[in-house]
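Help needed: design a sequence for this.
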């Protein structure tokens, strides 16, 4: 583990040299990264297929495409984001000018998960490089093939005193967290997020936690039910449900409960055929541990559709469960698989209360044409982000910040928010010397009434 300390020492020397301060240099690194990814496209897509069974289409749409969009967004706006920004002056400090400067944090640690192993590693890396930092990356050990490709690619593109990759499992995570950084960016479960935050607290290191939770869908009777069913099933089956913002459970108005389920069955068949276990567009569960956990959830309610499994390939057919037991693991833990509980409700207030009583979700999806209800959901429920009449697609817009709240995380990134996450906004007041107003200096006798007039 002396390798970690040596790497940190070399990074500290490199960062203190000022080499990362040049905006031109940072943009060169981003362009190099983009070119490198393009040259490795096939290897990356193959690795994603090996790890998660992703088709080339899904691998590009949910991983590479998003990364290309992030790179373009940063290259296009980096000059503006990094520029000195003037702010309104104050009569109290007249004559002066005030502005902010975006300063790199220093050395940052990025710990990424296995479910979107390329996107969720490289997206924060892009922002960290754009902000002028040195980066230690720790990809997941579960997504072995993708993690190896990431290390191979980045070692060819960057010197290890700028970007370095460390592989391993929990032991490596623990060893990395023993060291001090200027920021830690973690994507994963709330349980591990707590451990990361506990370690960071020992050195008062700021953290960004991109966690998960049970992201609800609410479907009202006035919604387009066939459309809602199709979009919900698409979102649930993307990456076989192994998505932190996947629809985790559905609350549906009772009068359209049966209609929604029937339309979901139609959508599943349309997308994956009558034998989903052999559909080329459906991926597989990451490992045996998670596969076994998911199978155990079948007993937590009434099986309404699906339920077929193939232990050899770790495939699970899209499965709908009705009347789920609310105290079961199905409704208490994030599912992270192609299993969807459906719960009927009678009133809008009942659905709203159901969500409000639980931990703040990373995402929320509301299918309804009732503008007042839309407004109420957005204003009265705390969640990271979401969609009206759609699912997951808010992640496709680089201008929208992505992050959780409460148990689903803290801090955000994507686009400018990512640059800000890995920067310190330094506030500067530049005093002028051509005029000296002596009101601020003692003695203060007789000045109280005057100073009161300068405050609103």
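Sure. Designed sequence:
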């Amino acid at each position: 583990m002396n390798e970690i300390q040596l790497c940190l020492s070399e990074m500290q020397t490199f960062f203190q040299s000022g080499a990362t301060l040049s905006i031109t240099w940072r943009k060169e690194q981003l362009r190099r990264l983009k070119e490198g990814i393009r040259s490795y496209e096939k290897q990356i897509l193959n690795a994603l297929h090996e790890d998660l069974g992703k088709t080339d289409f899904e691998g590009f749409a949910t991983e590479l495409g998003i990364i290309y969009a992030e790179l373009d967004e940063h290259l296009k706006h980096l000059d503006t984001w990094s520029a000195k920004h003037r702010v309104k002056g104050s009569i109290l400090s007249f004559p002066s000018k005030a502005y902010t400067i975006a300063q790199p944090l220093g050395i940052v640690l990025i710990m990424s998960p296995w479910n979107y192993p390329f996107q969720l590693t490289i997206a924060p890396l892009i922002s960290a490089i754009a902000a002028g930092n040195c980066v230690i990356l720790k990809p997941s050990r579960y997504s072995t093939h993708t993690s190896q490709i990431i290390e191979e690619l980045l070692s060819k593109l960057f010197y290890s005193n700028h970007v370095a990759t460390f592989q391993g499992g929990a032991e490596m995570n623990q060893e990395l967290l023993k060291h001090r950084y200027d920021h830690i960016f973690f994507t994963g479960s709330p349980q591990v997020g707590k451990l990361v935050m506990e370690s960071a607290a020992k050195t008062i290191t700021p953290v960004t936690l991109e966690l998960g939770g049970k992201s609800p869908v609410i479907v009202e009777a006035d919604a387009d039910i066939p459309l809602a069913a199709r979009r919900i099933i698409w979102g649930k089956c993307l990456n076989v449900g192994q998505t932190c913002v996947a629809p985790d459970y559905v609350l549906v108005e009772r009068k359209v409960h049966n209609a929604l389920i029937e339309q979901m069955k139609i959508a599943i068949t349309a997308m994956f055929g009558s034998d989903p276990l052999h559909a080329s567009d459906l991926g597989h569960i990451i490992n045996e541990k998670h596969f076994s956990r998911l199978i155990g959830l079948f007993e937590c309610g009434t099986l309404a559709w699906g339920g077929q499994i193939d232990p050899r390939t770790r495939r699970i057919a899209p499965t709908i469960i009705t009347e789920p037991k609310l105290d079961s693991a199905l409704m208490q833990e994030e599912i992270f698989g192609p299993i969807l509980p459906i719960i009927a409700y009678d009133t809008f207030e009942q659905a709203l209360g159901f969500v409000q009583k639980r931990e703040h979700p990373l995402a929320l999806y509301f299918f309804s044409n009732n503008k007042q209800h839309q407004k109420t959901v957005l204003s009265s429920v705390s969640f990271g982000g979401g969609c009206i009449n759609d699912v997951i697609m808010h992640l496709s817009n680089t201008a929208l910040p992505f992050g959780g709240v409460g148990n689903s995380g803290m801090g955000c990134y994507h686009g400018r928010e990512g640059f800000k996450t890995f920067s310190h906004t330094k506030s500067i007041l530049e005093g002028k010397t051509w005029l000296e107003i002596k009101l601020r200096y003692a003695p203060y006798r007789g000045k109280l009434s005057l100073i009161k007039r300068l405050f609103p």
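The chain has a mean pLDDT of 96.
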